[in-house]
Amino acid sequence: MSILISAAAAVIPMFLFLILIWKFDRYGREPFKLVLVNYFWGAIGAIILALLGSWLISSKVASFVINKPELNHLETILVAPFVEEITKGIFLFIILSYKRFENLTEGIVYGGAIGLGFGMTENFLYFIAYSSSLSQWVSIVIIRSLFSGIIHCIATATFGAFLEFAKFKRLFHKIILTITGLLLAIFIHSVWNFSVGFQSKTGLEFVSIFLTLTIFIIILYLSVRNEKKIIYKELKEEAQNGLLPFRHLEILSSTRRNNFGWVDERIRKSYINATTTLAFRKIGLKNSGNSKKEFFQKEVDYYRNFIHGLLS
Length: 312
Prior knowledge:
The chain folds into two domains: 3-197, no CATH class; 227-311, no CATH class. The chain is built from ten helices and no strands. It has helices at 3-24, 32-62, 68-98, 106-129, 134-165, 171-195, 204-240, 249-252, 268-287, 290-311. The longest helix is centred in the last third of the chain and has 37 residues, at 204-240.
């Protein structure tokens, strides 16, 4: 198959998955430009670092392993997941460390974006390598697009979820949660590589992807559901203080916020963004250390005044 067709087969499915995971974040959707930055880090930066890291570690491992098949097995199950999840996670860690807390699912979205970008480039390299036979190429495209690329997404998104959960924890717990998240991402990746490593297919790979995908969907669902509860609880306090009408609470914490007619259409989008941001800034204020409290207090005051101005 031509390079152009292989590129299209690699890009289109991963980009569609990217849009899907971005849109799943209903209450505090991240700027798509920033999501794309993470996506391209996975596609370019993480791939380059992973190739260098795998080469360095594999060259060291090779001096202890004589059997070539055994070396390949170790590289696939241990070296690749270890190196790739670290190279994908470096940028994610930096982004989430410097980014102000917006919502609980941002770590999942950015991590998933990095994983999908990595999967896109890796898929392209596989599609080029197995392009001599049409039937083999089609089989590789289906398997890697539906399974391998998604595993990259899930593994790094899981790490992102742990990073976001750890953001307002004490230093000791933050370190433990960060390490746990990274190890879990490596484990997910390693289990998948192990399940597809058998010459004779046992069905283990399908069990692996089904369980992993199910757990991931549950985590994402619970994260979005928790956001809904946060928005309702934090805005309820504002309604009690007279900032916004009580009748808006259920609407702002549900998908009905996107409907027409419940508030002046000229301010609806600004009102939704402001109230959602206010709710999460209040969480940041309650959970942050002394060094960040001033920032969050200013943000809370700003959005309260902004919302008051919108509804006046």
